[in-house]
Each structure stands twice: as structure tokens, then as C-alpha cells.
Amino acid sequence: MPFDVQAAGTALLEAHSASVALAKAKIRELALPVPLERLDDVALVVVIICTLFSVAIALTLTRALGRTASALRLSTSSRADAIVLMGPKGSGKTCAWQSLAYGEQKFGTCTSVEINELTEDVKGKDARGREVTKRKVRVIDVPGHPKLRREAMLWLKQAKAVVFVVDSVTVANERKEVAQFLFSILSDENFQRRRLPLMLACNKGEKLTAHPPDFIRKRLEREIEAVRRAAEGELPSMAINSKQRRANAAAQKKRDKYRTLGQRPGEAFTFDAFARATACPPTTFDRLSAVKNQVEPLRDFIVRLRH
């Protein structure tokens, strides 16, 4: 059935008139001191305020329901079989996810605040250069907004591997934020204990101002070392009794074990040294152009993962 613009406009005008009439009746019922000649204006303002308030409530409920649904999926699934796309906002995680899901950009570029998930066959080249297909690969795109960082870290429990997407153009200016996020992942107990494979996907490689992967690697190594040293100097948690002090000391010792990133005293952080010290697989660095659907290195990384 075709959409009738005129009928829709008429319905909106009728709804508006009814709302204003209802507001005027309520003002008279409450005997508010409003001059008669200003009654229409005041009623219109009341309707606008109520409409905006209703929209704000609807948006809040929608976001809350979205977070609840994400938390429910996270809590009800015990599978640790997902390729988890992480990284700061605006780096192109959702574009990379769309390339894997559809082979094209269906939704254009956007800043995602919701979890995107797919289970799809992924084609790529194995270590010998042969074309292979990995069946039913679960890929999760996690929002990168700083306010959602804590929730994002929880998805490591379901990770089989982590793909950390960075913007090759802006990474030099945003290196501190990127390094802090990476440090949170590398120092995570679950990440180190399960020895998760890590790929740093240097996205937006099609742009002339994009930095090469080797440059990004060296800059991030220096910044992560600075974050690691700063974490060593953090104050211990306060305690009010001996039992709590012992518990805090044990927790601090456990955190420090992972926060060192496996580096010996006096040794600076590098991704290679981290892999040797923690027995994690060597970190993969490669260039992508998700917006142009040039994500072959990502596909190759996925198909080369062990089952």
C-alpha cells in the first residue's frame, strides 16, 4: 500500500491540535495564572516540553534495553570461540565487520554503540598460500567508545582471538588513548592465561597520510611502555582491617603479575618480548582498507587460527 503523505500530514496536524487543546484544558483545570491571550502560546510550549521529555525517556529506555541485551548475550553464552574486533571509536571496526559479513559497506561509515555479531564462512589463504574456507566463524564487533570500555573488556571471555583495529591516519595523535586500551587488553588475566592471538589491523591504509604498520608498531611500543611504568606506580587500595589488607595485597600482587606484561626489570616493552615472556602467539601487524572492502589480511588471520 503506497504511503499517503497528505493523509499523514493531516493526521499529524489533528494530533497536534488535540494535544494543544488538552494542554489548554489542563491549564484551565489547574487554574494557572495565564493570561487568556497567551493561553495558546503557553499550551504549545507545554506540548513541546512534554514531547521532548517523552523522546528523551524513549531514547534512554532503548539504550538501556540494548545494554541489557548485550549483557544477557554475554552472560548466557559460555563459548570462547569468537573473533572479537576491538579498538578506539572511529577506527573502522564496524566497516571491517561489514566487509566480513556482506562483502560490502551496507550501512556506510558510522560510530556504533551496539554490539554487532555474525556467524559466517570466511575465505582466506592459509600459511602455505592455499585458498581455504573456515566454516561458521563467529565475529563480534565491540563498540570502542571510552564510556563502554569496561563492557568491551568483558567480551574477552568469549574471544578465540582479538583483532585490534587502529586508524592509520590519526594513530600518532591518538597514541596515548590507543596504548592505554591496548595495555588493558595485554594485561588482562584472561588474555594472558588463554594466550589469545592478537592482530593489529592498521585500517584506512588507502589514504595518502596513513602511517605504515611498522611505524605504528614502534610508536605503540613506546607508549605502552610508558603506560606500563605508570601502572607500576599506582597507589594500593585502601583497607580498614587486616583481613581486607591481606585480600588487597593478594589482589594487587595478582594484578602486578599481569601488568608487567612479562617484562624483566629494566627491560622495555616490545610485542616480540611480550610474546616470548607470556607464550602468547606473535602479534600480527597488517594494513587494511575496510571502507574499500580490502580486508584480505584479516581473512587470512582468521583462517590460520587453530580450531
How do the strands and helices of this protein lay out in sequence?
Layout: H1 5-29, H2 39-76, E1 82-86, H3 93-102, E2 116-125, E3 131-141, H4 149-154, E4 159-167, H5 175-186, H6 189-193, E5 198-203, H7 213-232, H8 242-259, H9 271-278, E6 284-287, H10 296-303
Parallel strand pairs: 1-3, 1-4, 4-5, 5-6
Antiparallel strand pairs: 2-3
Helix pairs in contact: 1-2, 5-7
Question: Explain this structure to me?
Answer:
- The chain is an alpha/beta fold.
- The chain has two domains: 5-62; 80-303, P-loop containing nucleotide triphosphate hydrolases (Rossmann fold).
- It is 49% helix and 15% strand.
- The chain contains ten helices and six strands; from the N terminus they run H-H-E-H-E-E-H-E-H-H-E-H-H-H-E-H.
- Strands 2-3-1-4-5-6 form a six-stranded mixed beta sheet.
- It starts with a helix and ends with a helix.
- One of its GO terms (molecular function) is GTP binding.
- It is found in: Endoplasmic reticulum membrane.
- It is a single-pass membrane protein.
